[in-house]
Here is the input.
Amino acid sequence: MRRRRCSDDPPPSQGGAGGGSNRRDPSSRFGRVDRRPAAPLDIDITWRLRESRHAIAPLRRVARHVAAAEGFRRGQLSIVVVGSAAMSALHRRYLSRPGPTDVITFDLGSSRRAGYLDAEIVLCADVARRLSRARGGTLIDARAELALYLTHGLLHLSGYDDRTAQDSRRMHAREDALLQRLGFGRVFTAGRECPVS
Here is the structure.
């Protein structure tokens, strides 16, 4: 995982979570390094679980579709799929909340107006498996749940919020519309109320 900070929190004093990465730290003693490529959107997916990686291709397809639909034409997106233990550690470190969550989005300098995306989105496969049981618990249901989390993270980067009931309904309606276009159906609406973060 890259060094990062959660968009909702002040920057940590020691940078982001460690983890092995061969990418350069975006900050240097000479100032911020401009990493805005002229090339189209670069999507990197890291699967940090021992289990099957069959969800990588669908996640890449979801990322490209949602990013394009929201106006992001270039930049970098890192998607990391982790288990409950890793997500709990990130949730505690960056949001000061115990236990795992479904998705955490780190905005590293995205600009919807400029069509530029620079972010890392961390998805929890264990939470996806658990919540997908309400719809049957198949591998397809778990993939749809991960697609929902990725879409949710990208919509936050696009300016959507879910802090009020009205904003939450608007955001989840957009998620369902995007996922229906990809053939996943209305993933959020299937069996959930709109929570307020």
Q: What stands out?
A: The chain has one domain: 34-181. Residues 1-37, 193-197 have pLDDT under 50 and may be disordered. Strands lie at 27-28, 31-32, 42-47, 74-82, 103-107, 116-124. The helical segments are 56-69, 84-95, 125-132, 139-157, 165-181.
